[in-house]
Target: Glycosyltransferase
Amino acid sequence: MRVLMISDHADPTSLTARTPTPLTTGSHAAGGQNVYVRILATELARAGVRVDIFTRRSSADAARTDTIAPGVTVVRLDAGPPGRLPRDSFLDVLPEFTDALCEHVNGQAFTYDLIQSNYWFSGIAGLRLRDLLGVPQVHMNCSFGHLRRASYGEWRNEFYAIREDAERRIARSVAATVVSSAWEGRLVRERFGADPDSIHEIPIGADRGFRPADRLGARRRLGIDERGPVVLFVGRPELRKGLMTLGVAWQTLRDRHPGMTLVMVGPDEASLAEDPKLRPLSDLLLEDPAPILAGPVPHTDLIDYYNAADVTVVPSHYEPYGIVAVEAMACGVPVVASRVGGLQDIVADGVTGLSVDPGNSTDLANAVSEIVAGKLGPVPLKAAVTRYRSHFSWARATPRYLQLYSDLVKSGVE
Model:
């Protein structure tokens, strides 16, 4: 089977650089979608599926094609002006990207059995390509416009109305929508009117390298204090990730636990200063003891960060993927997460972590303190790893993708 995967703005190779760049994990340009696309394609290829991933060429230095794993090729298409493009500006170049995609596919000596689109821009491009090729289209939303709109309070921004209309059309048109949680499935069905039979719940997993490792060794490699408790945040430097909530909670935690260290992967001083909505966070964070602001890091480096931590916090206002919580559990680390989106299905409250109300810094601080004090008992590592392996590993997810793809191809559904 040959699958054409579209990941418009999220180049999966952006997470593999050894030197932090604007496209490494935790930056504005890379995150859950990049991780999901790369790992899914790699796991499918291990099972014998040939995967070509089409994305926008965001740098003149980037190769036109890259083989990132046996059976997985990234194809970069020119669309719009050279260089990086803010994600929300991709709509301006989407027609050019779609034209380039269709032209490239038309010029090949082979065809594809199935299309998987990721994010709404890709979904629009995928619908046109589906009609051209006459093959089934599977779609993954990756996030939802109305939730992002609410988290930013941008009620007058017409961009979101365009996005939601597109998300609704995609959900009603594709052969299948893959959702990573029951919560996401309900949203696609109730808000977008998708056929319930077209919705397939397949939880995401973590990269195979994410597993428990020696905590002291991880701290030594990262230069983190080996004695006190370590709290980890991983995410883009964006307001919707709950950074202000975390900043207020940290003021409480550093007074309550003098030896505690907060490590933040993604944000750095520059990214906090350049975003007016995040500038107040500097006043909350950059005091003694200041947190470690690691900035963006290559995705594989996260393994040490997770294993160095006593608890990972995910204080997001909304979180469709929840991949940080999944990666933490794969490493045996308990999670404190907002009671929103897919996080509600990922974190087993009171077993593998604690759930808190979004935006509530007091709840967040208290939950971290409870975990540090041992509220989850003596074996949170075992509980987290057990839940990961039984619900979220790619060893469970990949066969479900293969079955879905096979069923759609055999049925001839478009």
